[in-house]
User: Fold this.
Amino acid sequence: MSIESAEQTAPPPGWYPDPSGEPQWRAWNGRAWTTLTQPYEVSSPIGPGEIVTLGVLRRLRWSGLPALYVGLALLIGAYDYRPSSIPGVNALSGTLWTVEVSLGIGLILGATAVNAVALRLLEGRSRWSQWVPFFAGWRLTRTLSFRLGAEQSLGRWQIAVSLISVFIALATLNPWISGFLLLYPYSVQDFWVARALREMYS
Assistant:
C-alpha cells in the first residue's frame, strides 16, 4: 500500500476507543495515537482542534516552563561565576562558562517556542511578540487567566510581582537567592496552565 493511499484511509483527528483495550477514549491526531485519554463516562470529549491545544499546554507545563526558568537560572549562575581577571575560587573556567551559557540560552529558546505555539493556538493568529522570551510566557498567563474568568487586576498583579521577582533575581549576586525568587513567577505560570488543563480541557 502506498503512502498516499494509507494517508487517505487514515481516520480524521478525534477520539476513538483505545486500541490498547483499556476502557477509555484515546486521541488520534490524524497520524498517530497520542498520550491523551478520556474515560468513557465523559459525554462530550473535546474536539479535534482542542486536542492539539491540550497537548501543547501539557508539554508547556511539564517541559516548557521548567526549561524556561532552569535556563534563566543557568544564565544568572553563569553571570555570578563568570571568568574574571581577578582570581577567585568561585569563578568558572572558560569552557564551563561557555557550556552553561549555551545550555541556558538553548533551554530558554526551546521554551519560548512552546510558549509561542500555545499562544498561536489560543489567540488564533501569529504575532511577533509571541516569540519574545519571557514576555510570551507572561502573555500566556494573562490570556489563560482572562479565559478562566479571573479578574484582570489579579492577572496583572501577579505578572507585575513576577517581573519584580525576576529583576531582583537578576540583580542579586547570590545564585541561591536568585533561584528562590524565580520560584514565584514559575509557580504563577504553572498555576494558570494547570487550571486551564483542569477546567478548560477536562
